[in-house]
Design a protein that fits this description.
Blueprint: H1 3-16, H2 21-24, H3 27-32, H4 39-65, H5 70-84, H6 97-100, H7 124-132, H8 150-163, H9 168-182, H10 186-200, H11 208-221, H12 224-232, H13 239-271
C-alpha cells in the first residue's frame, strides 16, 4: 500500500467525516450528561435506545450474511454473538466465566467468542431490560419497531442498509463511521447523567449496560486507524463510496439523536 495515498485518504476523512455534528455536537447527550432529566424523560430515552439496540441485531446479522470473505464473516459474528450473549473468552477470565457471564459489569471486553460461553443473561439487550425495570418498563414496552420515533426507525433502517451492505465499501465506510461515533464520548455523557440519577433519585438503577459499552469503545478507539489502513490496502477498496457511506451513516446517527432532542423539548413544552 502506498503510504502517501493512505495519508491523503486519512486527511480526507479528517476533513469530511470527523467534523460531522454526530461526532462533535450532540445536543441531546450534552443535556443528558447533566442528569437533570425527569424520570419520564429517562423512560422515553430508554424506550428509543432499546429500539436501536434490539434492531441493531438485524443489521449485525445482515453484515454476517453479506460478508465478502470468511474472515469478514467471522469478525461480524464476533459482534453479533457477543450481543446475543456469548461472553468473550480471554485467558485471564476463563476460570471465572460461569460466575461472570451473566453480569455486564464483570463480562470481559477482550478476547473472542471462540471458546466463549453463552448465557441468556449475558445478552446486551437483557442488560438493558434490567436497566429498564426500576423505571417501571417491562419486556413488552421495549425494543419493537412500533415503539420507535421516526428518527429512531430511520437510524435502524440505515444501519441495516449501510452497515449490513453487500457492497464492501459501503459496509466498511458505515462501520468506520459507527465506530468513530461510538468512540467520540457519547457513552461517557450517558454514564455521567445516569450516575447522577442513580446517586440522587434511583439507587436501584443498574448501569452495567452503559459502563460496559463505554469501556469497550475506549479499547476500539485505539484500533480504528489500524483497521482503516488494512481496509485501504484491499484491492476492492474505493475511497468515494467509502466516504459517501460514512457520511450517510453519520447523518442517520444525527437524525436519531435529533429525534430524541426534539422529543424531550416537545415534552418540556407540553408540561410548561
Amino acid at each position: 500500500m502506498n503510504t502517501v495515498d493512505f495519508d491523503a485518504f486519512r486527511s480526507a476523512i479528517e476533513r469530511k467525516l470527523m467534523p460531522h455534528p454526530a461526532i462533535t455536537r450532540n445536543a441531546y447527550t450534552a443535556w443528558f450528561a447533566r442528569g437533570e432529566m425527569s424520570l419520564d424523560q429517562l423512560r422515553r430515552f430508554t424506550v428509543q435506545f432499546s429500539v436501536f439496540s434490539n434492531q441493531f441485531l438485524l443489521a449485525a446479522l445482515n453484515r454476517v450474511v453479506n460478508a465478502d470473505s470468511l474472515e469478514a464473516a467471522r469478525e461480524a459474528k464476533e459482534i453479533l454473538l457477543n450481543e446475543l450473549g456469548v461472553v468473550y473468552a480471554s485467558g485471564r477470565d476463563r476460570a471465572r466465566r460461569p460466575a461472570a457471564a451473566g453480569d455486564a459489569a464483570l463480562a470481559s471486553t477482550e478476547g473472542s467468542i471462540e471458546g466463549g460461553v453463552f448465557r441468556f443473561r449475558a445478552a446486551h439487550y437483557e442488560w438493558l431490560l434490567r436497566f429498564a425495570e426500576p423505571l417501571g418498563l417491562g419486556f413488552g414496552d421495549l425494543g419493537r419497531r412500533r415503539h420507535g420515533l421516526p428518527g429512531t426507525l430511520h437510524f435502524c433502517d440505515e444501519l441495516f442498509r449501510l452497515y449490513g451492505s453487500a457492497d464492501y465499501n459501503q459496509a466498511m465506510g458505515a462501520a468506520f463511521a459507527v465506530e468513530n461515533w461510538a468512540a467520540a464520548g457519547f457513552w461517557k455523557e450517558l454514564v455521567a447523567g445516569l450516575e447522577t440519577v442513580k446517586a440522587t433519585r434511583l439507587p436501584a438503577l443498574p448501569l452495567a449496560f452503559f459502563t460496559w459499552h463505554d469501556r469497550i469503545e475506549g479499547q476500539h478507539r485505539a484500533h480504528l486507524w489500524d483497521e482503516l489502513r488494512r481496509c485501504h490496502g484491499s484491492p476492492k477498496f474505493r475511497e468515494g463510496p467509502f466516504l459517501r457511506a460514512g457520511a450517510a451513516m453519520l447523518d442517520a446517527v444525527k437524525v436519531f439523536w435529533d429525534g430524541l432532542d426534539e422529543d424531550r423539548r416537545a415534552e418540556r413544552s407540553r408540561v410548561a
